[in-house]
Amino acid sequence: MPTKTKRLKRRKLPDDQGERTQESLVKPKIKIEGPKYFAMLKPLLEHLHEHECQRDTAGNRTLHYDQYCMLVLLYVLNPTVSSLRAISQASELTKVRDKLGSEKASLGSLSEAGGLFSADHLKPVIEALSAEVNDAAPDPRLSSIQQTITAVDGSLVNALPSLIAASILKQTTGSALVRWRLHTHFEVNSLLPVRVDVTPDGGGEHDERAVLKRVLEEDRLYVMDRGYAKFSLFNSIVASSSSYVCRLRDNTVYETTQELELTEGDRAAGVLNDTVVKLGGSSSSSNSPDLHLPMDN
User: Fold this and answer.
1) Contact in structure between 259 and 295 (CB atoms under 8 Å)
2) What single-letter DSSP state applies at residue 87?
3) In sequence order, what are the residues at sequence separation of 6 or more whose Cβ sits closer than 8 angstroms to the Cβ of residue 236?
4) Per the record, where are the segments of Basic residues compositional bias (predicted)?
5) Could you tell me if residue 235 is inside a domain?
């Protein structure tokens, strides 16, 4: 018995409709967030357009440094753009190209850009943006402190496989997770970060205390959490003509040298006692802090 076949008719779509259908299949649907930031940064980044173009002897470069920065900002501000491939796909969208002033960026070009463009050229841009930030009104209780109050922290960041470093690591070690530590210095009065050092997560030279010790500056009051509690670091801070406030661990050994009377302001703030101590006790090594220190509970 003959088999019945059904002839399928294919209807040709108008050119523009077919293009829109294809675009919706392969490109992420995104709503561009932060348009004011793109408009503000474009003129500040224009001078980077020809950066490293001397290597392009064939004259076929389509991804320039300023455009790369804008695409990275697109990644930062838009949760739907969550990988390098998504950045490449988003760069094909007409609204993205119009807003960012960029061309389509291939995955290969984006991969190369991370190692080609030097981040040092962004420092003048960061300085220009920082100059536009108005200083916040400092807490009046801090007015008697003459040194620059600087909060320091070493935050751990997990980099997903969508990032270049993780992709490379996965190829070489089979692990798709990269952990980086951001060592940040934040000036309390201006509410601005003034320094960020990025290191792999780990001890030794990458330990948060070791990193801080290498970059100490004079005339600062470093405010630290208990992860920075190390007597040799305390002594290095004092030797650099700076001071420190640090939360101590619960098991810290110390000797009380003086009990100070609490003021009404202390009691109102919830201070239980104000004590001058010597950290480490009498039997500790010579690495103990050189000074007797005040301690509030």
Assistant:
1) no
2) H
3) 213, 216
4) 1-12
5) no
**Structural domain boundaries enclosing 46:** 22-127
Distance CA 214, CA 185 (A): 13
pLDDT recorded at residue 58: 56
Asked if 202 and 184 touch (Cβ cutoff 8 Å), the reply is: no
CB-based burial label for 237 (10 Å; 0-12, 13-18, 19+) = buried
Percentage of the chain surpassing pLDDT 70? 70
Mark which of 105, 127, 149 sits at the end of a domain.
127
Gap between the Cα atoms of 152 and 195, Å rounded:
9
* CA end-to-end span of the chain: 95
DSSP classification of residue 292: -
Domain boundary among 102, 127, 152: 127
CA distances from 67 to 75, 87, 103, 268 (A): 13, 12, 8, 54
Residue 236 has pLDDT above 90, yes or no: yes
Tallying the residues shown for the chain, one arrives at: 297
Whether the CB-CB separation of 111 and 164 falls below 8 Å is answered with: yes
Q: SS3 of 279, please?
A: strand
Q: Torsion-angle region of residue 219: left (phi > 0), alpha (psi -120 to 50) or beta?
A: left
pLDDT in tens, 219-230: 999 999 999 998
Is residue 72 in a domain?
yes
How many C-beta neighbours within 10 Å does residue 100 have? 23
Residue 47 lies in a domain: yes
Determine how β-strand 274-279 pairs with β-strand 293-296: antiparallel
CA distance 213 to 189: 23
Count of domains observed in the chain: 2
Q: List, for residues 67-124, the tens digit of each pLDDT value.
A: 888 888 888 888 888 888 888 888 888 888 888 877 888 888 888 777 777 777 887 8
- The span from the CA of 35 to the CA of 19, in Å, is 26
- Write phi, then psi, for 75 (nearest 5 degrees): -65, -40
